[in-house]
Write a structure and sequence with these properties.
Largest sheet: 4 strands, mixed
Number of strands: 11
Number of domains: 2
Structural class: alpha/beta
Oligomer: single chain
Order of helices and strands: EEEEHHEEEEHEEEHHH
Strand order of the largest sheet: 1-2-4-3
CATH architecture of the largest domain: 2-Layer Sandwich
CATH topology of the largest domain: Zincin-like
Helix content: 25-40%
CATH superfamily of the largest domain: Metalloproteases ("zincins"), catalytic domain
Strand content: 25-35%
Number of helices: 6
Low-confidence stretches: 229-234
Length: 234
């Protein structure tokens, strides 16, 4: 489907609702729609979202991106909003990752390939993020009177987090381990407020203002930070 010089991929499948996504790095647009939805109805829906699509595309095309990581000595990596230098230690011992002052120590066996090094760092980030998330979720469950039945950490392509109100579950982007702690807490609260209000309507905004008056500041801070270097495919 082509609308206003925007090429839109349409996929129809066994789902109940329309899902519209704009993907980095260049703003590719994809619409997933129910099998029984006719193209005219789908076209009207997309036309109603053209302004939003263009805003998202402009944001993606101008957003700063991290340099590709090679996982070599003296390379910059980020954790909890702070820059660290990677120090690679080659030993014929079990691989491990540790934090030491201003360095992330990556111990690997000699000749360990790039993919394995990346996997070790990602798993370390996952462990750190899991430790940060648990107390945050408990804190906000008490404050806003909701219960999270399940939470998971994922590498996510287009979102910092997501929520499924029906199952009372939330998902958090692994890359938030690299961002400042206040940005992580903002995303946790954002997704948990969706358990009270699924949409981004006036009630949702009112709840966010009530629970975290500076949430807009944290949102803008997070969105101004560089995102992962990757040509995401969908």
């Amino acid at each position: 489907m082509m609308l206003n010089d925007i090429d839109i991929e349409v996929v129809q499948k066994e789902i109940k609702n329309i899902h519209l996504s704009v993907y980095p790095p260049n703003g590719q647009v994809k619409v997933s729609a129910p099998n029984n939805m006719d193209l005219d109805t789908l076209r009207v829906f997309v036309i109603s979202k053209l302004s939003w699509i263009k805003q998202q595309q402009a944001k993606l095309r101008t957003q700063k991106r991290e340099l590709a990581r090679d996982y070599i000595d003296r390379e910059s990596h980020y954790f909890n909003g702070k820059r660290y230098l990677l120090r690679v230690i080659e030993k014929n011992e079990a691989p491990q990752v540790n934090l030491d002052h201003n360095e992330i120590l990556l111990q690997v066996r000699p000749n360990t390939e790039h993919a394995k090094r990346q996997s070790l760092i990602d798993e370390w980030y996952r462990t750190q993020l899991r430790q940060m998330l648990s107390p945050l979720i408990i804190k906000w469950e008490k404050k806003i009177k909701v219960s999270v039945s399940k939470w998971t950490i994922r590498k996510m392509k287009t979102k910092w987090g997501s929520c499924s109100p029906d199952s009372q579950s939330i998902r958090i982007n692994l890359d938030l381990a690299k961002k400042p702690s206040e940005c992580l807490e903002y995303i946790v609260l954002h997704e948990m407020v969706h358990l009270l209000e699924p949409s981004h309507n006036t009630r949702f905004i009112t709840l966010m203002d009530k629970f975290m008056p500076k949430w807009r500041f944290y949102r803008d801070e997070l969105n101004a930070l560089p995102v992962r270097h990757e040509n995401w495919k969908y």
